[in-house]
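Handoff note, outgoing to incoming analyst
You'll be picking up this chain. Sequence as last confirmed:
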Amino acid sequence: MKILILFLAPLFMFAHSLSVTSSYEDGELFIESFYGDGNPCRECTFTVTNGETEVYKNKLDNDGVFEKPVELKTPFSVHIDGGMGHWADVKIEGDEMGSKEESADTSTAATGTIDEGKLREIIRSELTKQNSKIQVMVQKNRSNLEKMLVGLGYILGIFGLWQLFARRKQK
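Most recent structure output, in case you need it:
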């Protein structure tokens, strides 16, 4: 029984681990936070810091998501407080695409026409922004699949050890 508890303890310890994914592109801050079992971190408080200075503070929604335009200077860190000792951090590095898109927007506004090359650049930057959010969701689902497979491995390993000890007792 002690061996069974020893092998099952890691599964319960990671059942409520807190994960966070975040991106900052074109002045829009996107944060998604969820527990190890897939439940969202509902209305969890997050803090954006630049070094030791607190720059921005807000709460996630009921889906564990925050997606709003916020004026921040990169690099910065996002700290999620899930309560009862659960927390997660992520660091956001500089964004080069935001400055390219801003220059494209100002030049087209001045002339009143859109050059095909600039239009392609704007579309490419918007698609890149959407693709990064999709990749975050795919990564989240992949990590949940990996956790399920690890859990299944634990269960099969425990069953194998149980069978090994049961056969030794029969001999």
